[in-house]
From TrEMBL:
Main location: membrane
Species of provenance: Zingiber officinale
Name of this protein: non-specific serine/threonine protein kinase
Keywords: ATP-binding, Kinase, Membrane, Nucleotide-binding, Phosphoprotein, Serine/threonine-protein kinase, Transferase, Transmembrane, Transmembrane helix
GO molecular function, one term: protein serine/threonine kinase activity
Lineage top rank: taxon: Eukaryota
GO CC aspect terms: membrane
PANTHER family according to UniProt: OS01G0588500 PROTEIN-RELATED
């Protein structure tokens, strides 16, 4: 189930497209968006526009390439956290106060995302991450420290967080929901649609607070009297909302559907797509949705690792919430604010708990950037 830096990024190398549009990631694999002839071109006008947009959008630190080369020990192979079609992510260290490169094992641990020098789509996603994370501040969003734009080099510098261990997934669902609810509100100046919400994009800080990461596909929400944003279909197959796949119409309720898929992954311990499952169980939503309507069948598909985290009534309530999020009709899905309220009520009613056994397991995951897949 939940992936982290290494597994997520290595899985996102270019592969066969799931749809003829070539814009959707199948599972966690990402197809090339532009043709080979056009993907290598970043025009001078685009570069100057990029510089202006970054300078006016945030208070992010502009790192030199040499700074980051020193921080990552010259991008050594043993510093690689993951790699894929967009490039590689390296582990590094910087001084917490000056943000200058620090010796390994000292200062603040960072993740340096280094874009391949070819590919305009990757450049656009790099710029999107800067423009969104440079302006949006929230406890449940990953913290972008700065960037590097030097000649052909494109890098991002983020605080390094651990991936979500399967034992903790249900306990961080509320934090992830709060992050999405914030994006959908106008508190960040304008509504933002995340567009690629999935388990592998939820990271944890040292106190197990959820942090949404990877804003490369995020989009500004509709404005004025518009009900949706029309866009090319991009995201991850298995998580994308059906109406978005069919029409390219994107709304905040598209993210709600994706949250429902993640909630289902957390409940069952299964991946959104797993071709190694028996026939009829490859696609989690198709297999599990009919079973969520019955209390007995719901209990039968729960992940045994959740023992101690949920009361029977809590498991049932969470399953019904997931079912609402997965409605085929976008308007019938709850808002993320409503999802947050529901999850908070579950916690207040002690439907979601944390057993001593779970606490012991959590300690073993502290600081980890790797995790096994779910059942």
């Amino acid at each position: 189930m939940g992936n982290c830096w290494a597994k997520q990024i290595k899985a996102e190398s270019p592969a066969d497209a799931a749809f003829s549009s070539g814009d959707l990631k199948h599972g966690t694999r990402k197809a090339n968006v532009l043709s080979s002839s056009s993907s290598r071109i970043i025009s001078a006008s685009s570069l100057s526009r990029t510089e202006g947009e970054i300078l006016s959008s945030s208070n992010l630190k502009s790192f030199s390439f040499n700074d980051l080369r020193t921080a990552t020990r010259n991008f050594r192979p043993d510093s690689v956290l993951g790699e894929g079609g967009f490039g590689s992510v390296f582990k590094g260290w910087i001084d917490e106060n000056t943000l200058a490169a620090a010796k390994p094992g000292t200062g603040m641990v960072i993740a340096v995302k280094k874009l391949n020098q070819e590919g305009f789509q990757g450049h656009r996603e790099w710029l999107a991450e800067i423009n969104f994370l440079g302006q949006l501040l929230h406890p449940n969003l990953v913290k972008l420290i700065g960037y590097c734009l030097e000649d052909e080099q494109r890098l991002l510098v983020l605080i390094l967080h651990a991936c979500v261990p399967e034992v903790l997934c249900l306990l961080v669902a509320l934090g992830a929901a709060k992050g999405l609810a914030f994006l959908h509100s106008d508190k960040g100046k304008a509504e933002v649609i995340y567009r690629d919400f999935k388990t592998s994009n939820v990271l944890l800080d040292s106190k197990y607070n959820a942090k949404l990461s990877d804003f490369g596909l995020a989009k500004d929400g509709p404005t004025g009297d518009k009900s949706h944003v029309s866009t090319r279909v991009m995201g991850t197959y298995g998580y994308a909302a059906p109406e978005y796949l069919a029409t390219g119409h994107l709304t905040s309720r598209s993210d709600v559907f994706s949250f429902g898929v993640v909630l289902l992954e957390m409940l069952t311990g299964r991946r959104a797509i797993d071709k190694n499952r028996p026939a009829g169980q490859h696609y989690l939503v198709e297999w599990a949705k009919p079973l969520l309507a019955s209390k007995r069948s719901t209990m039968n598909i729960l992940d045994p690792k959740l023992e101690g985290q949920y009361s029977p009534s809590g498991a049932r309530k969470t399953a019904l919430l997931a079912l609402q999020c997965l409605s085929m009709e976008a308007k019938q899905r709850p808002t993320m604010d409503q999802v947050v309220t529901a999850l908070e009520q579950f916690q207040d009613a002690k439907d979601i708990g944390r057993s001593p056994k779970t606490k012991q397991k959590l300690s073993s995951y502290r600081g980890s950037t790797k995790m096994p897949h779910g059942k």
